[in-house]
Amino acid sequence: MMLLQLSITALVVGVIAIPSPQTLNSSLTLLVDNDLQGAAGSASDSGALLLEAYSLNNASEACEDVGEKLWSLEPNTSNVQNMLNYLNYSSLNTGFSQFWIASQNGSIRAIDLDGRISQTKLDAELPVLCTQSAPFSNGTSQDTSEKWQITVESNNETLTGFRDRLSFRFLGIRYASQPERFTYSEPYTGNGNETSALGYGSQCVQAGDLGSEDCLFLNIWTTYIPGPNSTVEALKPVMFWIHGGAFTSGTGNDPTFDGGNLASRGDVVVVSINYRLTTLGFLALKDNVTNGNFGLADQINALDWVRNNIKDFGGDPERITIFGQSAGAGSVRALIASPKSIGKFAGAIPVSNLGGINYGTTYSKYYTIDEELEVAGNAILQETGCANATSQVDCLRAISPYDLANLDTVARYPVVDGTYLTSDELQLDGPTLPVHIMMGTTRDDGAPFISYPTTTNQSAYLASQGFDVPPSDLFPIPSIANKTLALFEMASHLATDGMFKCIDQATVYAGLKNNRFPPIYYYEFNRTYQTAGWPNLDVCEPPKTAPRPYGDPNEEYLKCHSGELYYVFGNLARQGLPMRDEFDLPFEQFVVDTFSSFARTFDPNPDVEFLEARGYTSTLEEVERAGKWEASTFLEGMTMRTLQWPSFQGPFLEARQCDSLGLGLDYYLS
To answer: Partner of 301 at 20 to 30 A CA spacing, among 43, 106, 362, 491?
Structure first.
């Protein structure tokens, strides 16, 4: 027997053979009832590893080859039926009604989809349920020891990843070799080599002397690895994450964006990427060669890698949803606008996209190369002494990448280069684009983009932030005792409308009126959880009281930029963060379930049968209580979902305020 020979060979040479779909002649599926509570949760302690059909003897050997044993159901029996219901619901059920589990007291046992255990013939061939004893990982620790490793052949490489309790994890996969600085990256193909995917690749160079120029890596989280006999019907949708950071900082390795929970609970494959940043990623020169958009081109290169190879990790290349936040949302918008990428993905979720006025403008409206030189490029050339060089680009290539990233001026702008971007903004008229869209903001997205006032002089303070004094009836200063806080709250309202809300709502309106987009699902987060690293503002935290020492999210506070990220990835517990009230966990579950539903079906309303099969009762109850999340359509009106607990449907907001800023719904129609 192949499996027996493999085990004997491993014993003879004194090593553990790392399993693969080929050596097992089977796909591998992790079955976990993930309630997002991590190691502290009762439901997520249960789990099994599903293999394809074997006789009982070979089934036992197959489990041993992955470092496990036949599943005994004990002691974790409480959530068995949820996993069986999921098998019955999903395409993983290939017609078998029974599964091998561990024998007991000499009794050869199998379990059926209704949870009934029966004795079965020894020579029967049934799918196998193995134990799943891999440990949980968290934001600072993961066990990559050989016992948990798995190899996958992809892109002419043998990639060794590992599994934790919730997912198979393949980290630091190269999608492009290090390109010469200020040139476009080329697709990477392996040479038949064995490559570790056990740890993250370097982040890209950024201020603070961080990262490396050799940084074009991606990470994959999946619960399903196809086998030699797997079918395309079993492939899962893909969520392709593009990190934010003003096009100057950040990394797809950030534990905030760990994709294990989203992949596990959401039944999707998650990918995160690195791409070149700051001047190294976006400088354009007037030499007809150095045309900028290198970071954007990296994103498209990574997208091509995924389209070509993600099926090896259980992902469907025809069901890719790109999503990103802040500059990542600006990237999503640019990829929709780019002739080099449109059509390579089926869905898009720009999360808190900037645009409109002041700081936000250039995320949605693109400079020409001449304009970029005026704003940033010429200052960079002067500061580096390269302005009068025979070859400016060669001069810049001779300078330390960290020196370039730490200059007083850096290039961080997508530009109209004629190849990756051919117009100065996303065109909102023309033929319908082949992409389904969900998008939105947090209620107070703009708050971290202005400074806290040191004066109560409204006009002086607003002028220092680049704003005129707005109409007081539209942007009132709250009547509270703390006058500087009151002024900051008004200015946050103004900044949010001017740089986020108005421009995004106008995008939806014009795109729908011109039939440029299919119906769009629009939202606003009205419950947030400030991330640990940024923006570090007290006003972005709910007020703390004795009964609520971590803050009471039902009280008033600013719902700031990035405050949706822990929820979208389901990573509160993974980050070791407390639940502030009894609603944080069900809200987190609901957000993961809606975002992943959009990736699966291009509709954020989760399929009720899916929720029932997975046992996602809190989301099921919220869907029944709040009703259907209605898409915005031009004929039926601009409608949006306010994401809080409970959620509700309503019209677009701030119409008069947006009109007063010159950013009304008809902004793109004039």
So the answer is: 362
Last residue of a domain, one of 131, 149, 178: 131
Say which CATH number the domain at 118 has. 3.10.100
State the pLDDT at residue 107: 85
Contacts of 398 by beta carbon, 8 Å cutoff, 6+ apart: none
243 lies in the same domain as 339: yes
- The most distant pair of C-alpha atoms in the chain lies apart, rounded to whole Å, by 85
Residue 361 sits in a domain whose CATH number is: 3.40.50.1820
147 within some domain: no
Rounded Cα distance between 80 and 316, Å, is 28
Name the helix (H) or strand (E) containing 384. helix 378-384
Kindly state whether residues 343 and 460 are assigned to the same domain. no
* Amino acid residing at 307: R
Q: How would you classify the pairing of strands 28-31 and 117-119?
A: unpaired
Asked if 301 contacts 244 with a C-beta cutoff of 8 angstroms, the reply is no
Residues 392, 284 within the same domain: yes
Q: Helix 294-309 crosses helix 327-337 at what angle (to 10 degrees)? A: 70
pTM of structure:
0.96
Q: Do 229 and 339 belong together in one domain? A: yes
Q: Which domain holds residue 483?
A: 444-669
Separation CA 87–CA 613 (nearest Å): 8
Do 388 and 462 lie in one domain? The reply is no
User: What's the rounded Cα separation, in Å, for the pair 569 and 580?
Assistant: 18
Encode pLDDT of 203-241 as tens digits.
Answer: 999 999 999 999 999 999 999 999 999 999 999 999 999
Categorise residue 407: left if φ over 0, alpha if ψ from -120 to 50, beta otherwise: beta
Distances (CA, A) of 643 to 77, 187, 407, 567, 633: 34, 39, 40, 11, 19
Give the residue from 131, 158, 190 where a domain finishes: 131
* 313 & 196 share domain: yes
The pLDDT value recorded for residue 210 is 97
* Residue pointed to by tokens 């997208």: 303
Q: What is the pLDDT of residues 314-368, one digit of tens each?
A: 999 999 999 999 999 999 999 999 999 999 999 999 999 999 999 999 999 999 9
Q: Is residue 429 assigned to a domain?
A: no
Are 417 and 334 within 8 A, CB to CB? no
Q: How many CB atoms lie within 10 A of CB 459?
A: 10
Alpha carbons 384 and 387: distance in angstroms, whole number: 8
- Please write the tens of the pLDDT for every residue from 92-121: 666 778 999 998 888 899 999 888 998 888
Q: What is the pLDDT of residue 634?
A: 87
52 and 199 belong to one structural domain: no
DSSP secondary structure of 475-504: SPPP--S-HHHHHHHHHHHHHHIIIIIHHH
The tens digit of pLDDT for each residue in 141-189 reads 899 999 999 999 999 999 999 999 999 999 999 999 999 999 999 999 9
148 in any annotated domain: no
Q: What share of the chain is helix, strand, coil (3-state, %, to 5)?
A: 35, 20, 50
Question: For the segment 599-648, what is each residue's pLDDT rounded down to a tens digit?
Answer: 999 999 999 999 999 999 999 999 999 999 999 998 878 999 999 999 99
